[in-house]
Design goal:
The complex is a heterodimer of chains A (321) and B (298). By secondary structure, chain A is mainly α. Chain A contains 16 helices and 2 strands. Chain A has a two-stranded antiparallel ribbon with strand order 1-2. By secondary structure, chain B is an all-alpha fold. In chain B, 71% of the residues lie in helices and 3% in strands. In chain B, strands 1-2 form a two-stranded antiparallel sheet. The chains are: A mainly alpha (321), B mainly alpha (298). The interface between A and B is large, with 37 and 44 residues.
Chain lengths: 321, 298
């Protein structure tokens, strides 16, 4: 499986890009290094969501909650206890996966859109708790100035840390998708009835997908704490979840790397356009409407169709879904 | 009990009645959501935004007419119509072009509408808190077992059942209501017998949004009208629809009652985390019956 990955043409390209990104901090000013790190961790977040949305057809509308749970767990452990940093970092993804399991058990019983509805509601409960529990979470102020271990405290070192962790996570996600589990997942997406008929436990696979996706979402949350050094309830708010969903759609949710592109675009827009206006969600809404009407498969999906005319079957399959 | 306050029968009954009146608001909003769900089969995420616009419009209309009783009653009638107009424009200009597409796109459109309407509300009304006085006849309170219950809550308790009865009569006795119910069951067949399905959808969508606006106008004297009330209500409405049974109007009623009353008792027992109680009720119900308490239309 690993060997197959290395033989792929894209793998060489990815390694080249990775090396290039390792060299980038030597040339860029500090703000841009920070900005790139935010893009990487957001890309990881979007990729983890896309495991559910694009590959599993599970409408995980409140993925931001798991990102927030990861960030809050790691942040609170670092700020309020004296546990070693690596325990705090590991606890984030694990707590997120556990939350994913709890919410998933309830949501998985409903199909498609109602799955998403219930998830928004249950996820909002976690947001409400984080928002109101002043004693522990600092309420709507959040906690700022979380002590980050020295070796990743500077902008450049945190950049490298985020880049390496994201790289490892992407390889893991890729391997998961290429594994028998990943193939089963995509088969369930395309035809759940037939999969159930041949003896696949559809719900268990979907629940497993949610747990894996929320684990990586939590990992992205930990990376956020490392880069920003703060936590606040907006991380758990569902407008953020929607933003992540739009990243997947924008980049191309039936492609592996699409969400990375989507994350890069949305984070750039938020940083550079959002700074000039208080109406960022209006812009987000307009982007979403344009996507729905003109490019429902996202940028990468669109290019796939343009580049590989022979794959029009692929595109028509999407239309049918 | 905190503060050493004894829980008397009077306090319990007031809590119950306040919860009941909250449930009436929730029912009016949720029945609209449920109606759209039943016919279009799409959870309208923008429903909460329309509720918020209803409340803001009620504020503007009532201040326009001097803030007195006349202004309030006019606001109660006109604000839902404003909301209906907004939803009609959104539906006819954009939403109706998506009916042939898969459901996810419809849902995402309502998401986009929520984002856009939220910011438009901010542009028009700003981020300030607004409040509306109820008309003189509904100010003050009545005594229930020796404790005061605001008259306005009593008014809500009277209005709620009438909306339910009106909706029930509409959907069972009128031709339009019957068509809408038929469309909920079998869309192709309704189209096949020569009814313009697109307009049935438009009608259902606008009626649902009208109810959201009515809920917003009705709630405006009891809370401070502000941005962010759209998020709160839509999440509650989703839960209510899920536990009640998707698309079932009586399910919306049962769900609202459970939600409103548990919330109100939550405030009595543990104010800081009152929000947890309705969620607990939801989790218990969904564990026992994942498809909701009453039969869903699917």
């Amino acid at each position: 499986m690993f060997g197959e990955m290395i033989r792929q043409k894209q793998f060489g390209v990815s390694i080249a890009v990775f090396v290039l990104l390792l060299l980038v901090p030597l040339f860029l000013p500090r703000f841009y290094i920070y900005f790139l790190a935010v893009i990487y961790l957001t890309a990881l977040l979007a990729m983890s969501l896309n495991l559910c949305v694009g590959h599993g057809m599970l409408f995980q509308f409140h993925h931001g909650v798991f990102y927030g749970v990861g960030a809050y767990t790691a942040g609170l452990l670092l700020a309020k206890t004296s546990v070693p940093w690596w325990i705090a970092f590991m606890a984030g993804p694990l707590a997120a996966a556990f939350a994913g399991l709890l919410i998933g058990i309830f949501c998985i019983r409903l199909n498609r859109l109602y799955f998403g509805m219930l998830q928004i509601s249950l996820g909002s409960l976690i947001w409400a708790i984080a928002f109101r529990w002043y004693g522990l979470t600092g309420g709507d102020d959040g906690i700022h100035g979380i002590p980050i271990p020295d070796f990743i405290a500077s902008t450049t070192s945190s950049y490298y840390f985020v880049l390496v962790v994201m790289g490892i996570c992407l390889i893991l996600l890729y391997l998961i998708l290429k594994s028998p589990f990943g193939s089963t997942l995509q088969a369930i997406r395309d035809n759940p009835e037939r999969c159930a008929a041949v003896g696949i436990n559809v719900r268990r696979h979907q629940l497993m997908t949610i747990i894996i996706a929320t684990f990586f979402g939590g990992a992205a949350g930990v990376l956020f704490v490392i880069v920003e050094g703060s936590i606040f309830p907006d991380l758990l708010f569902w407008v953020l979840s929607l933003e992540i969903f739009i990243m997947c759609l924008l980049g191309g949710w039936f492609t592996f790397a699409g969400p990375i592109l989507g994350a890069a675009i949305i984070v750039s827009l938020r940083t550079f356009v959002g700074a000039y206006t208080e109406y960022w969600t209006l812009i987000l809404g307009v982007i979403l409407i344009l996507l729905i009407f003109f490019m429902p498969e996202g940028i990468m999906g669109y290019n796939y169709r343009q580049l590989f005319r022979s794959r029009t079957k692929y595109a028509s399959q999407i239309q049918m879904e | 009990m905190e503060g050493g306050q004894a829980i008397t029968l009077a306090a319990l009954s007031i809590t119950f009645l306040v919860g009941l009146s909250r449930a009436m608001i929730l029912f009016i909003v949720t029945s609209g959501l449920s109606f759209v769900l039943g016919v279009l089969r799409v959870p309208n995420v923008a429903h909460g935004s329309l509720y918020m616009i209803g409340a803001f419009a009620a504020y503007s209309i009532s201040t326009l007419f001097g803030g007195g009783s006349v202004g309030f009653w006019l606001a109660l009638i006109l604000a839902p119509l404003v909301v209906a107009l907004v939803s009609l424009v959104a539906e006819r200009s954009l939403f109706c072009r998506l009916y042939q597409r898969e459901h996810l796109m419809l849902l995402l459109f309502t998401f986009a509408l929520m984002l856009i309407l939220g910011d438009l509300t901010k542009m028009v009304w700003g981020a300030d808190y607004r409040s509306i006085m109820p008309p003189r006849i509904l100010q003050g309170s009545v005594s229930v077992l020796g404790s005061p219950l605001p008259k306005y809550n009593l008014f809500l308790l009277i209005i709620g059942p009438w909306v339910a009865i009106g909706l029930w009569l509409f959907s069972t006795k009128t031709k339009m209501g019957k068509i809408a119910r038929a469309a909920a069951v079998d869309m192709e067949m309704v189209g096949a017998i020569g009814i313009n399905v697109s307009w049935v959808f438009a009608f259902a969508f606008v009626l649902g949004c009208l109810l959201a606006g009515l809920g917003g106008a009705l709630v405006s004297p009891t809370i401070s009208v502000t941005l962010g009330m759209d998020h709160d209500i839509i999440i509650e409405a989703f839960l209510i629809v899920t536990i009640g049974g998707l698309g079932n109007m009586w399910g919306a009623m049962v769900g609202s009652l459970i939600f409103g009353i548990t919330q109100s008792f939550g405030v009595l027992f543990w104010p800081q985390f009152a929000i947890v109680f309705p969620y607990l009720a939801v989790v218990i119900i969904l564990t026992l019956k994942p498809t909701g308490m009453l039969k869903s239309v699917w």
